[in-house]
Amino acid sequence: MPDLEKQIADWRRQMLAAGIRTPVPLEELESHLREDVERRMKSGASAREAFDAAVQRIGQAHALEAEFAKVGVALSDREHKVNRMIGAGLMALFYLMGAAWLFNLIPWLGPMALHERLVGASAWFLFPIIWSWSFTYRYLPVIPVSALGKRVAALLLSSVLGFVCTVLLVQLIPANEDGGIQSPYLGAFVWAFLPMVIGVSLIVGLERRRRSDAGEMRLVKRQATVRS
Amino acid sequence: MIPKELVAASAEALVLSILSKGESYGYAIIQEVRARSDDHLQWTDGMLYPVLHRMEDHGWIESRWEKMENGRKRKYYLLKKNGKAALKEQRAQWLKVHDVLVQLWGEKYA
């Protein structure tokens, strides 16, 4: 069916022109289109009729592109894989550097006191912790704006968790003879920065999760609008 | 015909429910919805795919390409553990809506 192949090639060009440039959605849509055409032809329609009806049913290129853009299908599978590999590599690097710092495995740094190693390692570990929220937020519960009690509880819980993490870390730090922390910088870091990062990360993650959920609802509404 | 807004709002629940019975692909999902609703539930076919991609992005479903006997490829979708949890949640919500309506209509027509 050379005509049908030409029609499908033209349809692909229209889709590409509309902005559906990534291979996965286009391949998937074409697979769907071919299946629909085949089914209609089996029911007795001519190739031309089957193609026209299938194209009409699958939707206009610009409307489809608008929907794909909303769900963030902007990268190909290969690009996603490359991004994931780079992300995983960077994560591993940060954790390895943290571990190396903690166990004093970096020769050119020379011997370090435990509290120095802890501070250095914490700094390395903090980057991936913060970064991970861009991925892990989707596993957090959705707390709507109307659930004020739950939102306050989540806020308090996030802060307490940050504080508990800090206390646990402080237990590992050797104290001076007078019982104080050896370095004032370490104290500032541990008591102000670390709980703030952990608490704020959780709060930001919860909010992002809620917005993500709200985005789904907007998607459904827009979808209906685009089709009407 | 069911209004487009209602069709769109139920899209995720429908897809999750169909995939809970086993893996499937876009065209088959649409056909099943159409058949089960006696053609009352209809959406523009292409609009299903952004929904599927979004559900995949949420970690509810996963996909794989499979080559068919005729040489063409099909993208199959499969429900994941998170998807089962999402289905459970959506099922409870839809049943609640259903219960309220049934109660109200029961009172009205009793």
What does this structure look like?
The complex is a heterodimer of chains A (228) and B (110). Chain A has 228 residues and is mainly alpha-helical. Chain A is 77% helix and 0% strand. Chain A has two domains: 2-72; 77-226, no CATH class. Chain A has helices spanning 2-18, 23-42, 47-58, 61-70, 77-102, 114-136, 148-171, 184-227. Chain A is elongated, with a radius of gyration of 27 Å. Helix content of chain B is 59%, strand content 15%. Chain B has helices at 4-9, 11-19, 26-36, 48-57, 81-109; strands at residues 24-25, 61-67, 73-79. The longest helix of chain B is centred in the C-terminal third of the chain and has 29 residues, at 81-109. The mean pLDDT of chain B is 89.
What structural class do the secondary elements of chain A suggest? Answer: mainly alpha
For the sheet with most strands of chain B, the description reads: 3 strands, antiparallel
**Overall pLDDT level of chain B:** 89
CATH class annotation of chain B:
Mainly Alpha
Give the full name of the CATH homologous superfamily of chain B.
Winged helix-like DNA-binding domain superfamily/Winged helix DNA-binding domain
Strand content of chain B: 5-15%
Spatial shape of chain B: globular
Q: Can you tag this structure with a few keywords?
A:
heterodimer, A: 228 residues, mainly alpha, 2 domains, disordered C terminus, B: 110 residues, alpha+beta, Arc Repressor Mutant, subunit A, three-stranded antiparallel beta sheet, 5 helices, 59% helix
Give the helix/strand layout.
The complex is a heterodimer of chains A (228) and B (110).
Chain A: H1 2-18, H2 23-42, H3 47-58, H4 61-70, H5 77-102, H6 114-136, H7 148-171, H8 184-227
Helix pairs in contact in A: 1-3, 2-3, 4-8, 5-6, 6-8, 7-8
Chain B: H1 4-9, H2 11-19, E1 24-25, H3 26-36, H4 48-57, E2 61-67, E3 73-79, H5 81-109
Antiparallel strand pairs in B: 1-3, 2-3
